[in-house]
Amino acid sequence: MRTWDVDAHPKWLAMEAEGRFQIRPSQHLIAKHLLNNPGAVTQLNMGEGKTRVILPMLSIAWADGGNMVRLNFLAQLLDEAHSHLHSLLTDSVLNVRLFRQPFHRDVAVNAVNIAAMRTSLAYCQSVGGLLLVAPEHRLSLQLKRDELWGTDPVACAASDDLVSVPCIDIMDENDVLLHHRFQLVYSCGTQEPLPSLQARATAVQALLITASALADQPGSVLTKPGVSAWVDAVDPMRQPGSFCSLRVIPGNALEGAAGPICSALAQALVDHPPLYELRWLHGHPLKERLAACMVDLSRSVEALVGAVDWADGLAEGQQEMLLALRGLLAGGQLLHCLQKRHRVEYGIRRHAPGPLCKRLAVPFRAADMPSERAEFAQPDVALLLTTLSYYQDGLSVEELRQAFEQLKRMGVNAQHDVYRQWLQASGRHTNPGQVPAPDSIRKVDTSNAAQMATLHRCFSHNMLAINCWLNACVFPAETKQFPQRLSCSAWHLADNPRIIGFSGTSDNHRLLPLQVHQSDPNVPALRATDGHMMALLLSNPTCLRLPEDLGPTWQGALAMAATNNMDALIDCGALLAGVCSRVAAEWVMPMLNAHFKGVCFFDPSSKQWVILDRCQRCMPRHSSPIPESQALVLFDDARCRGADLQLGKNAVGMLTLGPGICKDKLMQAAGRLRLLGRGQGLCFLATHEVARAMYSTSTRMQPAPETPHPQEPLFKQHVQLQQLHHHEQQPHEQLQQSQQPPLTSRHVLAWVMENSRVAMEQGVLDWARKGLHFAASKAHRTRHGGPLVQEEGLEVKHLWGG
After folding, report:
1. pTM
2. Helices 10-19 and 55-62: angle between axes, nearest 10 degrees
3. What pLDDT, in 10s, does the model give residues 537-567?
4. Which of 76, 136, 139, 128 is nearest to 98 (CA)?
């Protein structure tokens, strides 16, 4: 039964006919509420048609030839949204035209281009078209205008005309688009070398080598339960001289151990400096005070070391190195970076075109999805994460060749000494039947391909060799800094009185910009949206633990999904990070039973969902003879939000759990099962690290005993049998752990809600800081007509000397 007037909205009727669906009363209520409440953002459960139905309803209601309607999507969902809207609104009797105007800093801003863009927008408005953008496109245009303010007034004024075009903004997934952490920065000024680069790089590399050695010592503070974890980012048969792939786990255990960890690292540095550049620390008469200075920010360095001793007892280079170490330890940068997951939160952007191919680590949007143009703003964090990335990825053959060429440019004695250190660190790593590395640098011939293959096997993950390459080939060229910056945030995105949005989750609604407000219709049928999803998850209580004897994490996750006949693997925890989706699909294919005719996954090269069949033929999903309901569907980390596939009515999905997942991400991932609770089922898969965190949270919160749900999924018994089979093969220590109460979805919800609370508390200052900057920049533009330029503080003495 329709709850809206067909005469008032004839285009909605045409959309129903073209899309072969009927607008539900709840969808009409949401659309009506947003049409009448500018500045409102609302919540509706996943699978209720926000993007597929409500957004087109709002778009064609406003796009009447007098309004410019701008649809804001996440960058990774922009292509999929364009495809859906094209099939529903453009390739139909409605004939709504879609426009895209991507913008980035390298776009040439001149009179011709600005006129073309302005004409395109005017035409879009006049024909009732829709403009599809990503948030970085909008902010980049604003920052480009600000960048041109002092150099090209004409282009700046033309850009301002584009920025000022009145629009109606519709935000899809507003909780992410308007997230308090979202920010875009333009560096400006004259590029200059990073101050104290050598001291900073040496401090980073020395600390990582020391941390790796400390983690290898049984009983050290880094090996305490709940403090650290090791990942399989490198070959499980770890080479001597390589990094131990250490990652520390945030939580109470780390908070209690942070001080002892930093003190142990500082003491190890002064007692046994791992690098030649730090040899002055060993036997230094002030070494105890120097170690205390590295871990104490409560007093100035002069107070800790002594004013006279600081000024006269340490050379300028030694002071810089000590201050860099102080920032990494006392400033918390080392432990902060060691909490991040490689290839999930940071990594190297490889295979990027032209100027985007930087060799420094960059932030990742999701697992194996580097940001196209983002970089880490803090230089010490960039140095640290870059070094960690190459320690875990290793050097390519060409990069190692460059390292040896740099080595051969040194003096003769230095060549022999450095190469001897590389050999000692690698332990002349060979297996029976393999050719050992040359025992002298004089025997190294970088033009010999066979010898380079041997050297690559021995030194690709050698930390000293990687340090040599980074210090000579990467850091001097890639770390140049700008003295000033311009920045925009989600507050600038929301600076429009005619903005609306919706999302399936609303956990961070208290941290939205103040220009918008959470406003849900006061309708009983739409209340308790979060409670409904939580009830669905509680009705699917099974939570498995990933056995540690199944090889690399990604293989273990796929094996668990295949063994338990799952229809979908929803990789919310990014356990498949580091492996190509095509490789994962080919690996799991032989393990699938006869019901599955292929594997469905998202192919980043073609930017579409594809299906790989058992004959290794890969075809786009829309043209494949195999429906996704007859394939194992792999939702990678980036596709755990917004993706919509037609799974079987009785499909069962396995949702992976990774460190620090918050409730909104979990709910969005579970929402990929559109019929969850109406035939479809779900189980969780937790790593050992996550299981320990859930038990710890459960102990603190002391939840009430769980009452078994009367309608537990039919697959639960089978899953528990598979888990028991693995327990029978575990050693005694793991059997003791398995005697803990079995994990359930109640533990999962308690854990993610605690993570959400912590994330919200930590985000308040960032939210307030960006809000104050927005207000200050707006006031500055009103008074002076130009942008607010922020000065960068790059000197180590200014950062860590006080």
Report:
1. 0.86
2. 140
3. 999 999 999 998 788 899 999 999 999 999 9
4. 128
